[in-house]
Amino acid sequence: TRLSRSTSLNNISNISVKDNQNYKLDCHDNIGNCHEQSSVPSKEGSAVIGKAEMLQMRRWMVKMVEELKIKRRVVLEAEMRAEALAEQLHTTQIHKDSELEEAKQREEKLEHSLARLRQQCEDRLKACEVEKIQQQVYKESNIHVQEKSRNEIRQLKTQLRQKEKQTCELEAQLQTEKTASAKLLSQWREAEGKLAELGQLYQACEGSITRLEESVVLACAANRRLSHKQEQHATAMLEKVRQINDLEAELVKARVQISELAVEAVKMDGAEARVAALNATVLQLKQENKRLEEQMEQEWQRRK
User: What is the pTM of this model?
Assistant: First the structure.
């Protein structure tokens, strides 16, 4: 899924850059042809434009309208792809939130289990101490057995202290993972805000392009009615083309920001791996504690 998202974003950027370059070249060629045609004087006089020039100007204006329609279609396709990407990001965020909630629940269960194990270990240590006193009272003659029991109890206490130390380290790691999860959650919220801003930017660009198309249609109608205002319309068209180029540059920036959001989505995988490793370590510690309890129980039965 991450590979398909990255590929689609790269395709969007490549298509947009190529379309912008081709569109700018066509606009410059058409504007150059318009200036060349307007600079050549007609046979009937410099103040009147010939029918052939008017026909050529109409064809050029029709071509410009077609190109604007093509660009509008490209922008709509890009907007559809951006909406699809937004849906994917929303779905991914919901999935990550559920996983974070499950991780929190597992952490709470592990904390309760660790507290219960600690209490059981303390109880067993007290029981071992009581047993030690009883052995000293009832078996004062058997010094060798008593010394051996003491050594075993010391070893068990040492192992328990080591397990408690490992438990403290795991608790510190859990706290670190909680902090990292909170940081990632804040990053996702920032990504949501950026995505909303990009949606507003797309809507503004669409409205601007619609207004520019309407302005071009009005300019074509005015050019057919008033031939003496040709230079004014040409200047207005140049300004409209410049505005379209600026809007397309803003669209390219918006696509780059969407690509950055996709890169931020990849960072969530590292946190999942760390949480899985931490859960495996906690499970191993529980198994070792269980084994230690069994050893202590066997020692207790043997001494009885």
Answer: 0.25
